[in-house]
Design goal:
single chain; mainly beta; 5 strands
Amino acid sequence: MKRTTKIFFTGLIALTMILGSAGMVYAVVTINATTVSSSGALTLTGAGASTWSLSSGALDIDSAGALSINSSAGAINIGNDGAAYAINLGTGGAARTIAIGNAIGATAVNTTAGTGGIALTTTSTGAGAISLTTSAGGHYHDPNKEL
């Protein structure tokens, strides 16, 4: 048995409580054509551009499964504002493989640095500790400079 009760409605905001099976209660908040709902999962949908903004504190997004950020119509920007803080990828205590790019078509990976330089560091001492590989052509290394 499913019973729906609309708690309030004002032109832009509506709150609806739904009593579902096994006594589980679901809440649906509708805000000017954008719906935020919860039924054991959080779903945000909207037809227009959306912005999450916090005036203080932190925003943590954590997932027990895969977490994907995709765009079908534009660039995905991370750290593209003027704040001069670090961007950390894979810096936690677990062993992870950090993959960047793919070998499909004209995919390119561009790395640019200012006066801080680019540092490649490894604790591995094996023959492949740092490996530069190309499938065609070659790579250049000045033997008079450190790699």
